[in-house]
Specification:
The complex is a heterodimer of chains A (210) and B (254). With 210 residues, chain A is mainly alpha-helical. Chain A has 8 helices and no strands. In chain B, helix 3 crosses helix 4 (122-135), helix 4 packs across helix 5 and helix 5 (151-163) runs parallel beside helix 6 (181-196). Chain B starts with 7 loop residues before the first strand and ends with a helix.
């Protein structure tokens, strides 16, 4: 066990890396999708809705397979790591889009009305009044999404990204101790999830409206 | 009737929400410095009328004018957006639920409009906020967040925020309806002070006594039309229409 532990730590770092990169991609996709879904243009709304339904309505595993195994057929050749980041990022982006939209919608309508009656434009109202309040409402749901992303990153082991779950599986063959090996992997996931939860708590406090 | 052009004018205003027509042809003219109280049962269209003047509701037909400028001009897209943002800067609106910005201090709530929209310097805007807060009796709350204020204090800050834009007219949409009874007077006092300064005001209210004290004219609305209007003395003592009498009897006996 002591012999394999350094490999686990290294693999956990890969899990963190893939999660952080997918999170960045996911947030960007989510912001665009939420904006599209709330846009006044019917075409943009349709695109936003299609994206969200497609990625929330199918298994993440299938999305990864389509991207990694199916990609080459249409000329997209991705390394496992890149395919993993893109697949996970686009998947979580669809969920995060709803978290962002939900927070924006949850800001009381009266806030927008008050800002508009003062004479602020739509954009000024969004930037100065709605977003600062919605940001706070987004923190928890986006935190939940991030935890789901972190745990869901185990799926990329199936497209041979050498992260925590993949590494654990690899050591079963040489140690014949699945209980301990997967137990340690589970423990490492738990520690990472706990860290995310703490960060979310801190952000929540930091952005609390007095 | 004076010969100067009216400050607020509404012509043939009609508005439906789905199949329900809530404004069924409203004509209204308010002179500069005049104070008009709008009374009537819930659902009579009085709030919708007030919101239409600010274009929070867009009319199905009819016109709204503010000091010789048509509020609901037949423009589209960005052109209308620019127009309405300019017009709205000249109208202050006060809501039943205050709608202060909870993430900003009292000072920021008040000074944000003048700084961003009027290009006022920070120090000028802060001085303005300070003088307006003194006027509504809340100078000591300048750095407080709205959540630390009572309902009456919130509404007074909301009035100061609207005044900071130096509006030509103030629209009050049931400004005291959400307040505990003992907090109503402090808000009414501020409104009376504005009346004394000849601010043009349209006040949607359920408080007949206050309407009687402050208004030059009282409009009684029901079913999307102005049923009757007149000076408060006539309206409250000798209403002409049966519908007005029934309504007032209920309120004045309560």
């Amino acid at each position: 066990m002591q012999r394999v532990f350094p490999f686990f730590v290294e693999a956990a770092l890969v899990t963190i890396e893939i999660t952080v990169l997918a999170l960045i991609l996911g947030l960007a996709a989510a912001a665009l999708a939420a904006a599209a879904k709330m846009s006044r243009s019917a075409i943009l709304r349709t695109i936003g809705t299609l994206y969200v339904s497609l990625f929330r309505g199918t298994p993440c595993l299938i999305q990864l397979f389509v991207l990694y195994f199916g990609g080459p057929q249409i000329g997209i050749n991705l390394e496992p790591f890149a395919a993993g980041v893109i697949g996970l990022g686009l998947n979580i982006g669809a969920y995060m889009a709803e978290s962002i939209r939900g927070a924006l919608v949850a800001v009381d309508r009266g806030q927008t009305e008050a800002a508009r009656t003062i004479g602020f434009s739509r954009f000024q109202t969004l930037r100065k009044v709605v977003l600062p309040q919605a940001a706070r409402l987004m923190i928890r749901p986006l935190g939940v999404n991030t935890v789901a992303l972190l745990k869901g990153s185990a799926l990329v082991s199936t497209i041979s990204v050498v992260e925590l779950t993949y590494t654990a599986q690899r050591f079963i063959g040489s140690t014949y101790k699945p209980f301990e090996i997967f137990g340690v992997a589970a423990l490492l996931y738990m520690i990472m999830v706990y860290a995310v939860a703490r960060v979310v708590d801190l952000l929540d406090k930091r952005f609390a409206i007095v | 009737m004076s010969t100067q052009r009216p400050m607020v004018e509404v012509r043939g205003a009609r508005k439906s929400f789905g199949a329900v027509e809530v404004l069924r042809g409203i004509d209204l003219s308010v002179d500069r410095g005049q104070i008009v109280a709008i009374i009537g049962p819930s659902g009579s269209g009085k709030s919708t009328l007030l919101r239409s003047i600010n274009h929070l509701e867009s009319l199905n037909s009819g016109e709204v004018w503010l000091d010789g400028v048509q509020v609901n001009q037949p423009l589209h897209g960005q052109a209308f957006e620019r127009h309405i943002n300019k017009v709205r800067q000249q109208m202050g609106m006060v809501f039943q639920h205050f709608n202060l910005f909870p993430h900003l201090t009292v000072l920021e709530n008040i000074s944000m409009g003048p700084i961003i929209l009027k290009g006022m310097t920070k120090s000028d805007a802060h001085a303005l906020a300070h003088s307006l807060l003194s006027k509504v009796g809340l100078a000591d709350k300048i750095d407080a967040y709205p959540s630390r204020l009572s309902g009456g204090q919130k509404q007074r800050v909301a009035i100061a925020r609207a005044l900071a834009m130096q509006p030509k007219v103030m629209l009050f949409d049931e400004a005291t309806s959400a307040l505990d009874p003992e907090l109503v007077d402090e808000v009414n006092a501020v409104m009376k002070q504005l009346a004394a300064e000849h601010m043009t005001m349209l006040i949607v209210t359920h408080e007949m006594r206050f309407a009687g004290e402050v208004a030059d004219r009282v409009l009684f609305m029901d079913g999307g039309v102005i049923v009757e209007e007149g000076p408060p003395g006539d309206m409250f003592r000798a209403p002409q229409k049966e519908r007005t009498r029934t309504f007032l009897k209920k309120y004045l006996s309560a």
